[in-house]
Amino acid sequence: MQAFAELMYRLAFTSSRNAKLDLMAAYFTGAPDPDRGIALAAMTDGLNLRLPFRRLVAEMLEPHVDPVLFKLSRDYVGDTAETVSLLWPDRETDLPVPSLAEIHARLENLKPAEAGPQLAAWLDALDANGRWALLKLVTGALRVGVSARLAKTALAQGFGKDVADIEEIWHGLELPYTDLFGWLEGTAGRPDPGEVPVFRSVMLAHPLEDGELAGITPDEWVAEWKWDGIRVQLAGNSVELRLYSRTGDDISPAFPDIIDAFTGFHGVADGELLVMRGGEVAPFNDLQQRLNRKTVTASMLKKHPAHIRFYDLLFDRADDIRELPFPARRQRLEAFVDELRTPVASLSELFEFAGPDDLAVLRERARDANIEGLMLKRVTSPYLVGRPRGHWFKWKRAALTADCVMMYAQRGSGKRSSYYSDYTFGAWRTADDGRDELVPVGKAYSGFTDEELKRLDKFVRQNTTERFGPVRAVSPSLVLEVAFDAIQPSPRHKSGIAMRFPRIHRIRWDKPAAEADRLETLEALAAT
Amino acid sequence: MTLDPASWLYPTPAGLYCEPGGFYIDPARPVDRAVITHGHADHARPGNAHVLATPETQSIMQVRYGDRAGGQLQAIEPGQIVSINGVDVSVAPAGHILGAAQVILDWKGYRAVVSGDYKRAADPTCAAFEVVKCDLFVTEATFGLPVFRHEDASGEARRLTGSLAASSRTHLLGVYGLGKCQRMISLVRAAGYERPIYLHGALQGLCDYYVSQGVNLGDLRPVAASGGDNLSGELVMCPPSAIADRWSRRLGDPVTAFASGWMRVRARARQRGTELPLVVSDHADWPELIQTIRDVEAGEIWVTHGREDALLHQISQMGLKGRALALVGFEDEGE
Ligand SMILES: [Zn+2]
């Protein structure tokens, strides 16, 4: 438990992805079975522990801590579990520290009346970090900034495997992953994914670079829209069905409407998850309402109905067809979607085009809010794992831009912690008193070179008007030309709009702030 | 015990004032006569006409302030008594930093002890805290909340040396220049770390002074001399402000560590943006505050600065008389 607690502690304060991977890889290669398997489940959201924490805490702490002192402490610390971990008395005993596996096994069959005393006994045996990790574990709220994908990448790194190989067997694995670690360490064979529909690593596209367009000829390439939803994989073996995200997270529980519609499906299909209303693709915002939910209400299903627009087939029943060229896979995909006859599924349309000029025209037409641009796929390509060069290209429509004024700057993290590198910018509007005021419309931390960052940092330091912790307000004097993919109405924001993927396009050192764009101009873009 | 201590020792805008003695303890602005508990900048300020302090505190003030350390400097060591207008002043080690003293005031058979900053945990760089029984104990309360229980400092030092051993990145440790810096160096040395330690220029002077007082700090080198480029895998120390300063850019992508009692609370540690928070403090934690209040057996406890609500509540639960002085000018952020 101590090694796991130390890992959780370090992860909570580590922002760089590589440093996180190093910490996790060191843990997974060093920790014993079955502890590391439990830890892996805890990090990948595979543990379902939900003790009635509030009630237990009140019960357990009462004999130890004065209520006034508890309240003052809780107010200062800002988190109940952490407050308890810090207030719990250190015992002068040599109680053996419970292992993660012991804790998990005991929790599995704990009677409600035993929960309090058991938790107290563990807390007695642990130090402050151990207590924190235990309390976060039993309440199912570790939150140390690790995604399932990152944990799997750390496994791959630690044991010198390909992350795609781990993904392929992942959903067939069970706690405490002893088979997996055996295989990773070379003492056992590769686990068989068995009955569970397996996630297959997806094929990704490269952005089309200048000069590459000329090579996109109609005899060797096909074109389709690049939809503005999320990439999903539907995997079924006629008994079970799963909906996976691009990174292999099982998102089925949030999409019962999809699961119902495809009951009995046998195969693996690749497509875009969208919200579809009256035959029209709804804005990305609608889809966002459906994401990151463990459960979903009936009204949610009705208001934001999900839909998959398919563009590839990896397995036709049990046949692995990934080696086949695109047209052969497409033919089987069309047959599959045809057979379905459900409003929940559609095919991504393929375009005829005569040459590069045609494509440029098509791309310009992609002004529809739900289309991000074009996908260009080489007809002879098999379905390849990862991001192979020269097979699939994405050609996003030209970004929209606006001239905004820097309002706040925040210090970055990791390598950038000594730079003010995250910028909040605003657009002008007329205030109630008739004067112009800036209202924040977005935040960006990319799109500039290291040299430009140095100059921006200097600007922030020289033009600071107020400080709030790591944030500085700056005098409204620098115009940032911001590029973004779309603008959407957003009642949650003060400005009433939200930018999608904003980044700094150019720094307009030359432009007077008063000539930056007005909020009305941006609102008009939201309509298109 | 008929004498009300508040009739002769009380807070003023310039600081805690002993009226019959005509002197201030750790005044916030220049005065004629000052008694200084220790060399931290919020306790020892420049420009007082007469200063009474331990020899170490005086030397530290001279290192920091040069000619402005004070008009006349008078030294006092544990065991000595200096009588100022009928008030007997003596000192006892506070265990906070080198030279830190509690100030003991004896007047008309009544004894008041002003602790300054103090801690009870072991520290190889200064004399250990001594319990002085008294009628009135004036305590700090920087960590006056029960959530503050500092970790064993040598264990925290091992976390740092362990991280150094496991990584090829530079480790940049932010420390307060007086006390924390030298204590952290001693701790990592005791943990078996023998490589050179690289110092930001601002830390050099006081380290030199500690070494001259017989505190062994091992091989210390200025960062400036190394050019900063080739310090991967090395331990570099700097004042906290320098971590986020342009100065630290020469170190590439360091693991930032910070040693302070505040690191106990995750939100505070995150605010610092530190990757390796170390819970090491030169102030008493909650159990030490309570233990000390018990040990000195005073009937009345005054709290100078810090988080006094919780401590005053605790003092009243212990059946003692407590009072918040709410003295201005003390910073708890520097810890
Ligand atoms: Zn101090």
Question: Can you describe this structure?
Answer:
The complex is a heterodimer of chains A (528) and B (335). By secondary structure, chain A is α+β, with helices and mostly antiparallel strands. Chain A has 3 domains: 2-139, Orthogonal Bundle (DNA ligase i, domain 1), CATH 1.10.3260.10; 206-394, D-amino Acid Aminotransferase, Chain A, domain 1 (2-Layer Sandwich), CATH 3.30.470.30; 400-527, Nucleic acid-binding proteins (OB fold (Dihydrolipoamide Acetyltransferase, E2P)). In chain A, 36% of the residues lie in helices and 24% in strands. Chain A has helices at residues 2-12, 17-30, 35-43, 53-61, 67-77, 80-87, 100-108, 112-125, 128-138, 148-159, 163-170, 178-185, 256-261, 284-290, 298-303, 326-340, 356-365, 450-462, 519-527, and strands spanning 206-207, 221-227, 230-237, 241-245, 266-277, 280-281, 306-316, 319-320, 345-347, 350-351, 371-378, 392-396, 400-411, 420-430, 436-444, 464-468, 471-474, 479-484, 486-489, 497-500, 503-508. In chain A, the strands form 4 sheets. In chain A, strands 3, 4, 5, 6, 7, 8 and 9 form a 7-stranded mixed β-sheet that branches. In chain A, strands 13, 14, 15, 16, 17, 18 and 21 form a 7-stranded antiparallel β-sheet that branches. In chain A, strands 1-12-11-2-10 form a 5-stranded mixed β-sheet, with helices on one face. In chain A, strand 3 and strand 4 form a beta hairpin. In chain A, 38% of the residues are buried. Chain B has 335 residues and is α/β, with parallel strands linked by helices. Chain B folds into 2 domains: 5-147 and 283-324, Ribonuclease Z/Hydroxyacylglutathione hydrolase-like (Metallo-beta-lactamase, Chain A); 153-278, Metallo-hydrolase/oxidoreductase (Rossmann fold). Chain B is 25% helix and 25% strand. In chain B, the strands form 3 sheets. Chain B has a 7-stranded mixed β-sheet with strand order 7-8-9-10-11-18-19, covered by helices on one side. In chain B, strands 1-2-3-4-5-6 form a 6-stranded mixed β-sheet. In chain B, a hairpin with a 7-residue loop joins strand 8 (87-93) and strand 9 (101-107). The interface between A and B is large, with 35 and 37 residues. The structure holds zinc ion (ZN). The site of zinc ion has 5 residues of chain B, from loops.
